Amino acid sequence: MTKTYKNIVILTGAGISAESGLATFRSSDGLWNNHRVEDVATIEAFYRNPNVVHDFYNSMRPEMQQVKPNAAHTAITKLQQFYPADISVVTQNVDILHEKAGNKNVFHIHGQINQIVCLNCGNVFETWNDVSAQDVCPQCHKKGYLKPNIVFFGENLLYMNHVDSLLQSCDLFISIGTSGVVYPAAGFVQTAKFFGAESYEFNMEKTSNNILFDHHIYGPAGTTFPKFVENLLSHSDIG
Q: What digits encode the pLDDT tens for the residues 136-195?
C-alpha cells in the first residue's frame, strides 16, 4: 500500500459499536432491545403514542452515555490526526462513541440518542435527561412537539446532500461493521467507486454486498482496523 489518499470517507454501522458492548439495532427476530421496531422506531408509532417512544429512548440513554469507545474508534482519531487527508465519518449509529473517541467530521445520518428535535420550530438540542410528550421546547415554548432526533422508518436521512458530495470526491471509501442490507447506506460504496474511489470492507464475515468492495478484511474491527491505520500511516508521505 503505497498510494497517498486525499479524501477518505469512513462509513460505520452497528458492528463497530457492538465491540463496545452495545446491542445491534435490529436482531434477526425483528426486535430492538426486546421491543418491536414498529412500536418504537416508526413515525406512525410516535404520532400514535409519543410517550411510549420517549420512554424507550429514555431507557437507552444511560447505557449509551456510559459506554466507552473501542480501539477501532480511537484508530479513526489517530488516522485523522496524522494522515495527510480530509477524513470524514458517516455513521448509521445513534450513539456518540465516535465523539467520545475524539473523531472529527462525524455525520450521524440516523440521528443521535442525545439529541431532541422540535417538530414545530425545528430546534435541535442535546440532553441526556428523560423527555416526555408533556415537555416544552426551549426555543418556541410549545408543548408536545419534542421528538427524539432519531431518523425513524418513514423519515429522510440526515446530511444526505453533504454525504453525496463526500462520496463523489473521496478516493478511499472504508466501511466498518455495516450489514450491507440497509439502503441508501448500502449503496454508498457504489457511488464512491463510480467516482473513482478504492474501497475496503471491515466486517466479521462476508456481507450481502461483498462483491462491491475492492478489498475485504475480516475479524473484529478493534483488531483489524488499527493495523490497517498503522499500515496507512507507515506508507504515507506525512512529512
A: 999 999 999 999 999 998 899 999 999 999 999 999 999 999 987 777 888 999 999 999
Which range marks the domain in which residue 137 is found? Answer: 25-66+113-150
For residue 36, how many other CB atoms are within 10 A of its CB?
13
Residues contacting residue 42 through CB under 8 Å, at least 6 positions apart? 152, 153, 154
Q: How confident is the model at residue 237 (pLDDT cuts 50, 70, 90)?
A: low
Decide: 12 and 90 in contact? Cβ < 8 Å.
yes
Task: Residue 44: give its domain's CATH number.
Answer: 3.30.1600.10
**209/229 same-domain check:** yes
Q: Running DSSP on this structure, what letter comes out for residue 184?
A: T
The residue-averaged pLDDT of 116-140 equals: 97
CB 157 within 8 A of CB 184: yes
DSSP state of 167: H
Rounded to two decimals, the pTM is: 0.92
Instruction: Kindly tell me if the per-residue pLDDT of 238 is higher than 50.
Output: no
Residues 5 and 74 both lie in one domain: yes
Q: In terms of domains, do 143 and 195 share one?
A: no
Residue tagged active-site, from 108, 110, 141, 216? 110
Distance of alpha carbon 221 from alpha carbon 46, whole angstroms: 34
Question: Catalytic annotation on 73?
Answer: no
The set of residues, in sequence order, having a beta carbon less than 8 Å from that of 129 and lying 6+ positions away, is none
Quick one: 178 and 213 in the same domain? yes
Residue 43, C-beta contacts closer than 8 angstroms, at least 6 positions apart:
152, 153, 154, 155
pLDDT of residue 186: 80
Here the cell at position 196 is 473513482
